[in-house]
Amino acid sequence: MTEQEPVKSGIAMVRISGARVRRLREEQELTQLYLATGVGVTTETISRWERKKAPTIKKENGLKLAEALGVSLEEILAPMEQPVQERDEAVPSTVAEPTTSVFTAAGFGKKMIWAAALLLAVSFLLFFFSRPGNEVIHFSARRIMPAHTVVGRPFPVVIEVASGSGKSSSLLLKEQLPTGCRILKTVPKATVAENKLLKWIDKNGSGERIFAYLAILDLEPGGEDSVTFTGSLLIRQISRSEIQVNGRNRIRLLDVHWADSDRNNIIDDEELLGVYDDFGRVNGLGVDVEEVESIWMGSGYRWDAEKNVFEIIP
Fold it and tell me: What are the chain's domains?
């Protein structure tokens, strides 16, 4: 086969570099699901393109793939590859003049049929995506949690989910808990699986949504000095769309109150306001704001491991 792929049924084809596509995707920390959504194919198709050295794909898909990667089409083509231009089928030179005219008319008619089909497809897509409720809504998810906590003491976690539109959309939020993490309460109520997986389902929400939980780390002394939390948000729209929960995902195990962000054994004005802003707005979560306020009103505090309490210094 030559460097250029032949036109298949009047559709222009290009040969891309699978390794180059994979490198560009990984450099930008993009998922195969993101590229699949942008091109309009499945993640298996993207995976197959990346595995092959020089897969041949439709030029239209090549352009969409390049756009999703933020590069030009030429930057993802295989070496020596150029976009294939559409061309008429070759006519044998031995064919008589009348016969040549017949084949030319047939070729012209075939092009007209393809053009009409393409125009119809574009019109359908424009109609479909312009209907109310079919636009893609962009979501974000951010975890707010203390930087540290004491083993065996409750601490709060809040996950903010926001959309760039006032439209409603069903979603599934999942939070994977580390080993030794015990849930005391969730708001709104979540399903807690045996494998330490929290699940919230919001069937008809819009705008900013808040999901929160109160937890305790029951770990043996002298063990891990920190633990990691991971989460994902799945939105069912025109196509499957899943994003990772960003924000803080790691919490250290120290003998310091979780509200004492600078770890100086004092809760100052700014830290108290931070507790109100980040965790006090979640009704029914059970955050011990009174304890935080009591420490704030004193001159400091110390941790008593034997009594498992924070002693307030007047």
Answer: 13-76 (1.10.260.40), 139-313 (2.60.40.3670)
